[in-house]
C-alpha cells in the first residue's frame, strides 16, 4: 500500500517546493541591500556598528589569548569625535550620572531628615546635646524612608552608626551624623558635576574644565555672588591654579578628580557658601585663597609688579615682590626651575614669568609648610640639582640673606652659626647633606626655607620669642 515509489515522489516534490536559498534572486537582492547598509535607519546602523565593534573586541581577545606571554598594551586609542562609539560612550555616561544624581538627597530632603532627627532624639541631661541610640537610629531610618524615600536608607546602615563617637550609654550625637550626611551629598554632587565636565572620561580635569566648574559654582557661593562679571575669568584662573598646584604635583596639566574631592582646596572653596554675618577684616578674608578679597589682592600685586605692562614679569620686576626682601639667588633659581623658556629664545635674560607661573610662585611662598610648597622651594634651594643640600649650599644661599640683613641696620651675625642652627633644626639622616625628605620630616622645613630665601623670614625666626610673647599678651588681657 505504501510503495517505495510514492516515497520517492514525495521527496522529489519537497525538493522542487524549497529550492536552495542561493538560487532565489530575491534572497540575493535582500542580502545585497542589507549588506550595503542603504535604506537602514539610524537604529539599524547603530546595531550594525555595535555588532562590528563587539566582533572586533572578540577577535582582539582571541588574538591576545593566542599571544599569551607577550607584554600587554597599556594604551587604548580613544574613540574618534562624532563616531558611534563616542556617541554611545557619552550617552552611557550621561545616563549613569543622571541615575546617580537622582539618588542624591536634595535640600528639601535634607531639611526633612533634620526634622526627623530632632523629633525622635533624646536630650542628654548632662550636656543638653541631642543624641540617639541604635534603636532610635533604626526608628528614624524607618520614618525618613516613609517621608523622603528609599534613597536615604543607605545613610542609616549599622556601619555608619559605628563610625561616630558614643557616650557611656551607647548614644551618638545627631549633629555630627547630619553633617556627615550633608558632606557626603555635597561631595557626591561635586563628583557628578566634575565628571560631566570631564570630556574624555579619564577621571582627570584639564585647566579649562576646572575653570568651568568653578564658574558654575560662583552663583551658588554667597560670598562671590556680587563679583563683577568682568573679573570672573581672572578669578577662575586664580582659583583653578591652586587646585592644580596641590592636586597636580607632577605638573602634567590635569588634576585627578578623586584627589580634588579629598583636597583641602575644595573644602576651602566651599566655605564661601556661608553668609558673613560679622564684619570680617581684609586680613582675615585674604587668608582664604578663594575669597574675592584674596583674588583681587593677587591680581593687583601682579599688575603693580608688571611695570612695562606686557603681561609677564622679568627678574628685575619680580625682585620687588614682598618689598624686595627675597634674595637675588632665589629669584634666579625660581626662573631657572619654574619658568618656561619663551618660543623666541633669547637666552635666560629674555625669559619672563607669566601669570600662571606667578600664581605658583605666590602659592609656594604662602604655603611653605605644605609638601607641595616645600617641594617647589627645595628645587630652588638645590643649586646643583643633586637632590640634597650641603654646608656649602647653605653658606651660598644665606650669604644674600646676610647681606640684606646688614643693609637693614641689624647686628652682625656669623653665617657658620646660622648654618649649624639649621643643621640642628633639620637633624638630617645623613649628617653631611639635607634632603627634601629631611625637611619634610623635621616639621620645620618651611621655617628653614624662609631663613634661606627671605630676610624677613630670617628676622621672624630670630625674633620668634618676642613675637610669641606679643601674641599671648592680648589673650591674657
CATH architecture label name of the domain at 310-340 and 352-469: Orthogonal Bundle
* Whole-number mean pLDDT: 85
The helix/strand class is mainly alpha
Helix % is 55-70%
Shape: globular
Secondary structure tally, helices? 24
- The CATH topology of the domain at 310-340 and 352-469 corresponds to Recoverin, domain 1
Our Rg estimate from Cα atoms comes to 34 Å
In order across it, which strands form the biggest sheet?
1-2-3
Assign the CATH superfamily of the domain at 310-340 and 352-469: EF-hand
Number of strands: 7
Could you give a short account of the major beta sheet? Answer: 3 strands, antiparallel
CATH top level class name of the domain at 310-340 and 352-469:
Mainly Alpha
Distance between the termini: 128 Å
Low-confidence stretches: 1-6, 8-15
Percent strand equals under 5%
Amino acid at each position: 500500500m505504501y510503495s517505495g515509489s510514492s516515497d520517492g515522489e514525495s521527496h522529489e516534490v519537497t525538493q522542487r517546493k524549497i529550492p536552495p536559498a542561493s538560487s532565489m534572486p530575491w534572497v540575493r537582492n535582500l542580502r545585497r541591500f542589507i549588506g550595503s547598509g542603504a535604506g537602514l535607519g539610524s537604529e539599524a546602523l547603530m546595531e550594525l556598528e555595535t555588532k562590528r565593534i563587539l566582533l572586533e573586541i572578540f577577535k582582539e581577545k582571541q588574538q591576545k589569548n593566542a599571544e599569551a606571554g607577550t607584554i600587554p598594551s597599556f594604551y587604548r586609542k580613544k574613540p574618534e569625535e562624532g563616531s558611534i562609539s563616542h556617541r554611545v560612550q557619552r550617552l552611557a555616561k550621561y545616563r549613569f550620572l543622571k541615575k546617580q544624581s537622582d539618588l542624591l538627597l536634595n535640600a528639601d530632603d535634607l531639611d526633612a531628615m533634620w526634622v526627623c532627627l530632632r523629633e525622635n532624639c533624646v536630650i542628654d541631661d548632662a550636656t543638653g546635646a541631642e543624641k540617639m541610640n541604635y534603636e532610635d537610629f533604626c526608628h528614624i531610618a524607618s520614618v525618613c524612608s516613609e517621608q523622603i524615600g528609599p534613597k536615604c536608607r543607605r545613610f542609616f546602615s549599622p556601619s555608619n552608626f559605628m563610625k561616630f563617637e558614643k557616650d557611656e550609654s551607647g548614644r551618638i550625637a545627631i549633629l555630627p551624623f547630619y553633617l556627615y550626611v550633608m558632606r557626603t551629598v555635597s561631595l557626591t554632587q561635586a563628583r557628578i558635576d566634575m565628571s560631566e565636565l570631564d570630556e574624555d572620561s579619564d577621571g582627570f580635569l584639564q585647566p579649562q574644565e576646572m575653570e568651568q566648574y568653578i564658574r558654575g559654582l560662583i552663583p551658588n557661593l554667597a560670598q562671590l555672588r556680587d563679583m563683577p562679571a568682568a573679573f570672573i575669568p581672572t578669578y577662575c584662573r586664580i582659583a583653578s591654579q591652586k587646585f592644580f598646584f596641590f592636586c597636580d604635583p607632577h605638573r602634567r596639566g590635569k588634576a585627578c578628580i578623586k584627589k580634588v574631592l579629598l583636597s583641602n582646596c575644595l573644602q576651602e572653596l566651599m566655605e564661601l557658601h556661608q553668609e558673613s554675618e560679622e564684619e570680617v577684616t581684609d586680613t582675615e578674608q585674604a587668608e582664604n585663597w578663594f575669597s574675592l578679597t584674596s583674588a583681587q589682592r593677587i591680581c593687583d600685586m601682579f599688575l603693580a609688579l608688571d611695570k612695562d605692562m606686557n603681561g609677564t614679569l622679568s627678574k628685575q620686576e619680580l625682585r620687588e615682590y614682598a618689598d624686595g626682601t627675597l634674595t637675588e639667588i632665589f629669584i634666579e633659581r625660581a626662573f631657572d626651575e619654574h619658568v618656561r623658556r619663551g618660543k623666541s629664545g633669547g637666552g635666560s635674560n629674555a625669559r619672563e614669568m607669566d601669570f600662571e607661573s606667578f600664581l605658583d610662585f605666590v602659592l609656594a611662598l604662602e604655603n611653605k609648610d605644605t609638601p607641595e610648597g616645600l617641594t617647589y622651594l627645595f628645587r630652588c634651594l638645590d643649586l646643583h640639582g643633586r637632590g640634597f643640600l650641603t654646608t656649602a649650599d647653605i653658606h651660598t644661599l644665606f650669604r644674600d640673606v646676610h647681606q640684606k640683613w646688614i643693609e637693614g641696620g641689624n647686628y652682625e651675625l656669623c653665617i657658620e652659626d646660622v648654618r649649624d642652627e639649621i643643621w640642628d633644626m633639620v637633624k638630617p639622616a645623613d649628617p653631611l647633606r639635607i634632603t627634601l625628605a629631611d625637611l619634610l620630616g623635621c616639621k620645620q622645613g618651611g621655617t628653614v626655607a624662609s631663613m634661606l630665601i627671605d630676610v624677613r623670614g630670617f628676622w621672624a625666626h630670630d625674633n620668634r620669642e618676642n613675637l610669641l610673647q606679643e601674641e599671648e599678651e592680648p589673650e591674657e588681657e
